[in-house]
């Protein structure tokens, strides 16, 4: 039944994303800002934020255990469905990428940057980047956003149920949405830790969903990649899995200068198709785990 809950939630979430509705980041931000006030001098403290994520996770785990023991496991499925819809999702990207691709096609790189800068990490906003560097930054942000808001949640839901899915997504939210910036770096360490296994699994999935030969040449650079960030692991493995230099703008412009105006849109379409195919692989794997009685 957990697979059915996930599939229904995934379909609903994709529809909401296309309509740019129900942004999970806004829900987390409001939750943290309401209960995340700390005293002066305690800005680096992580305990309050951790409790705001850990305690609901423990409550969900307790509800799961009690409902299973009492034989009413099905009573928890509606709550899981609602939570999965909220935990997943990356609304807003569709409109942003369409505007970005149109600006790229016109050769208006300043307008392209204007459309995407709010989606980039704070350290990269306002930077004077070349078109090639800008596009790689956009691609990296898109890939990490989809990983953290879909694949990470799905992985931990399949492994440990809604409690672990909530915990994983909550740690990512703390790293990006917690009001005190001084504490975010410490939350980011926990987010990287909980994303280590699913990010490597997704990088392996790229080989099945893309160019296996190209992927096999690149995967050795990132696997196991203990010292590499999630974004680097995903970008390097995706670069090997995509054909046509979709993640190598410098090489593409050198070989196909006449097609450069279409590169931005084509590259992003290739990335999204790779991620969609990878999710299909994960759904099939989830189904096999359910059939085997392991999920």
Automatic annotation (TrEMBL):
Top-level taxonomic group: Bacteria
One Gene Ontology CC term in the entry: plasma membrane
Keywords: Membrane, Transmembrane, Transmembrane helix
4Fe-4S among keywords: no
InterPro entries associated with the record: Beta-lactamase_Reg (IPR052966)
Membrane spanning stretches: 46-66, 72-90, 150-173, 193-213, 274-294
Protein name per Swiss-Prot or TrEMBL: Signaling modulator of AmpD, AmpE
Record organism: Marinobacter nauticus (strain ATCC 700491 / DSM 11845 / VT8) (Marinobacter aquaeolei)
